[in-house]
C-alpha cells in the first residue's frame, strides 16, 4: 500500500464517529442571538454586573467582618454569601443539566437550597454568636 494512500486513509473520519458527533451536538447555541423566552443581552449584562458587584462587596465585607464585627456585617455576609453561591450553582446547572424537566427540577432545588441557606445563616446570626464571631472562634483554635 503506497504511503500517500495510507496517510489519507488515516486522516479521514470514520462515518460512525461523524454520526455520533452529530447526536452529541450541544443543545443550546450560546453564540447565536437569544431565542424567544431566553432573555436578552441587556439582562445578561445586568446579571454579570450584579455578580461582579456582589464579588466586590464580599471582598469589602471580609475585612469589615474582622475590623468591626456586628449584626449588620453578619446579615450582610449571610445575604452576599447566599446570593454568590446561588449564582455560582446556577451556572453549574446551566452548564451541566440538559433537558426541560431536569433543568426545572434542578432550578427548583437550587431555590430551595438557597432559601434554606439564607434562613439558616439568619437563624445562626440571631440565635447564636453570628458569622463574624464564629469565624473568629474558629481562628482562635
From TrEMBL:
Binding positions for a ubiquinone per the UniProt entry: 96
Pfam families associated with the record: CybS (PF05328)
Entries under SUPFAM superfamilies matching the protein: Fumarate reductase respiratory complex transmembrane subunits (SSF81343)
Source organism superkingdom: Eukaryota
Gene Ontology cellular component list: mitochondrial inner membrane
This protein's pathway: Carbohydrate metabolism; tricarboxylic acid cycle
Subcellular location: Mitochondrion inner membrane
Record-linked Gene3D superfamilies: Fumarate reductase/succinate dehydrogenase, transmembrane subunit
Protein family membership: Belongs to the CybS family.
Subunit structure: Component of complex II composed of four subunits: the flavoprotein (FP) SDHA, iron-sulfur protein (IP) SDHB, and a cytochrome b560 composed of SDHC and SDHD.
Protein name from the UniProt record: Succinate dehydrogenase [ubiquinone] cytochrome b small subunit
Species in which this protein is naturally found: Oreocharis arfaki
Amino acid at each position: 500500500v503506497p504511503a500517500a494512500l495510507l496517510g489519507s486513509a488515516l486522516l479521514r473520519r470514520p462515518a460512525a464517529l461523524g454520526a455520533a458527533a452529530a447526536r452529541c451536538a450541544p443543545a443550546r447555541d450560546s453564540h447565536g442571538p437569544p431565542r424567544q423566552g431566553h432573555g436578552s443581552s441587556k439582562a445578561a449584562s445586568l446579571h454579570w454586573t450584579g455578580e461582579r458587584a456582589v464579588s466586590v462587596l464580599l471582598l469589602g465585607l471580609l475585612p469589615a467582618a474582622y475590623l468591626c464585627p456586628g449584626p449588620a456585617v453578619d446579615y450582610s455576609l449571610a445575604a452576599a454569601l447566599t446570593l454568590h453561591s446561588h449564582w455560582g450553582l446556577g451556572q453549574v446547572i446551566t452548564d451541566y443539566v440538559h433537558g426541560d424537566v431536569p433543568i426545572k427540577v434542578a432550578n427548583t432545588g437550587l431555590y430551595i437550597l438557597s432559601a434554606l441557606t439564607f434562613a439558616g445563616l439568619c437563624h445562626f446570626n440571631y440565635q447564636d454568636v453570628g458569622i463574624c464571631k464564629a469565624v473568629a472562634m474558629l481562628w482562635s483554635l
